[in-house]
Amino acid sequence: MSTKKKTTWQKVRKFLNDLHLWAGIGAGLVLFVVCLTGTIYTFHQEIDEAINSDRYYIQAPLSGQVMPIEKLVAAVEAVVEGGTPGSVSIPQDPKKAYAINVRVEGQRRGTNYLVNPYTGEVLGDTHTGASEFFMVMFRLHRWLMLDMAIGRPIVGWSTVIFVFLCLSGLVIWVPQKVKSWRQGLKIKWSANWKRINHDLHNTLGFYSVFLLLVMGLTGLYWSFDAYRDGLYSVLGVEKPQWGRRGNNAKEEEKKEYPASTLQLVDFLEAANQALPYEGDYRIELTSKEKNTLSISKTHTGFFVSSGRDQLTMDKYSNEIVKKEIFSEKPLNQQIAQSIRSIHTGEIFGTFTKILYFISCLIATSLPVTGTIIWINKLKKKRKRKSSKKIVKNNAEALIPA
């Protein structure tokens, strides 16, 4: 490399380093909160279930005989006055309770009630002390517990800065000499604390940067409508119309269909034949305005895809009207339907959640170690200026009057 090119590259690195430093200082506090809450939220479901095991887990009898799902739904309806059951979640684990979602007037998502499938006992709902704590973490993560119109753009622009920090940090990390590569891949624990702090920032940041970029780029999906629209456009898929219905749906609402004579277990048996693998089921309870019933199934295990397979079944004949297998969809559709699981780390089950937890924990430490590096540089700069001033004063003192 010529001296001229080398000087240019050094200038570029210094410019990026300065931008990286000041952008990190400016957004550091927000990013610390967002990363910390994201780390805590990663295993929220597992922690909630462990703390409230008396609600989520049951003693399965030796017979393993479960009650008809219709009776379980009726048991929950008896507890919730004026509630309309919307879905039943059936876990693959025989020691876990079923979850029946019931929505009362004024509710958007409804409440999940946990019921013992062997006795019909309603164990309570999923609103626990742990779930309330994790909801606070969620609100801090998404909009800093502020008004959504204020907090969401603050988190969004901080995430944009976060993406820049990841990219600029990766460029700054690249050593100028090939022999220095190994040095950037490990932490020198035998060095002084300043060097260790520097290595913790650089090395751990490098190892986690690719997952952090994925988190940042997918996180912007919930911050900016234009970004979300652009993402769907790039992927070449139609944007979902949440809560909206077309004219055909409105016409269909006016028509009522008679109740089905089939039991929900009949649909489960047909679903087991169509989807012959271990997994968790979710049955969307059909209404009078529909002549079909929807069943979805997700794989269970340590390393499994979070993609959901969907069956639409005729509620009178039990025949499969439509079958959507996630793995058979085009890649762009798989990505579009997995934005949330890609962001949270659920994309490949517990395996990726562990990787995300570690990476997010590292991301939480980066504003801290970066701030310490900045403070050390300020002290070093002041010390250098002080030394120059002393030398200058001494030189002036030696000059004869």
UniProtKB/TrEMBL annotation:
Superkingdom is Bacteria
Q: Which residues form the PepSY domain?
A: 68-125
Q: Which residues cross the membrane?
A: 21-43, 154-174, 204-224, 354-375
Q: Which InterPro entries is this protein grouped with? A: PepSY, PepSY-ass_TM
Alphabetically list the UniProt keywords: Membrane, Transmembrane, Transmembrane helix
State the PANTHER family in the record. Answer: BLL7967 PROTEIN (PTHR34219:SF3), IRON-REGULATED INNER MEMBRANE PROTEIN-RELATED (PTHR34219)
Protein name per Swiss-Prot or TrEMBL = PepSY domain-containing protein
